[in-house]
């Protein structure tokens, strides 16, 4: 059963959530969405028309984080409150599938990530628009969440249709009696119409940019491992690492030790496979000395390695790397060029 909550009701719900969680909501800055803390001044909450600029992963694996102190095997205590992130889009939820595989898999469980994941509350929302760079439908995703959320909000006239995806989500609704009523049939129909319209816009993007199908993507990196495409595309790369840091599925990190006033502290920081030193080993040998090899590695990992080991492409079609790349390297164009080779 779906519920309906007014905008005012959502504000009350999130203020109730703030009693337990650090609540982050999307806000518009210079025409783009970024996450910001829920304001305590009662300002209206928006769920945002499309994904934010900043990827969801930044809440769960921080760009730089202390992971050990004084050589102790016991992870340092953190005083962080549980997180509640609002307005998460389907493409960022898909990013969780890769991040979970890496940080909460069977072989290794990262205590910081697992704690943040277990304690957090995810209130996702449908996209009500699509950027020209959105191509989630290429991976059979949709611009609205179909799972992996605690609550999902679909904006309709006057408020939101609410779907409950977990007991945690249901408990939050129950903690605010009267905040959400049963959704009327007209409201769920309006939600479905809007979903179809946004899906159609994303599919028009696929057509316009001639994004290859999943079937064409499979194996295309392996088949064209020695293609000149890698060198040609790498010509404009400036090794800034933006494509990695902004990507909801990229997860590579560097560990380094630093001495503070009293003792050694170990930090984990995001790393980028486009950087020259990324694969360098002690003694100076570097298996990916050439920039074109590093660019190829990024695609190989996303479209060959992860489908094999995790059964998922490590790309959600969010388009962030397309917008962020100063070298104008468009992941859709690279994949199209590869899929066109015989
Ligand atoms: S590779 Fe680019 S389009 Fe794909 S998930 Fe990462 S940032 Fe988004
Ligand atoms: S964002 Fe573009 S220029 Fe920067 S490292 Fe990635 S591919 Fe290279």
The largest β sheet comes out as:
8 strands, mixed
Number of helices: 13
Radius of gyration: 21 Å
| Coarse structural class | alpha/beta
Tally the beta strands: 11
Distance between the termini: 50 Å
Bound molecules: iron/sulfur cluster
Task: Give a written overview of the molecule.
By secondary structure, the chain is of the alpha/beta class. Helices cover 36% and strands 19% of the residues. The chain has 13 helices and eleven strands. The strands form two sheets. An eight-stranded mixed β-sheet has the order 3-2-5-6-7-8-1-9. A three-stranded antiparallel β-sheet has the order 4-11-10, with no helix packed on it. The longest helix has 24 residues, at 185-208. The chain is globular and about 65 Å long. The model has no long low-confidence stretch (mean pLDDT 92). The site of one iron/sulfur cluster has 13 residues, from helix 12.
Task: List the main descriptive attributes of the protein structure presented here.
three-stranded antiparallel sheet, 342 residues, 13 helices, 36% helix, alpha/beta, globular, eight-stranded mixed sheet
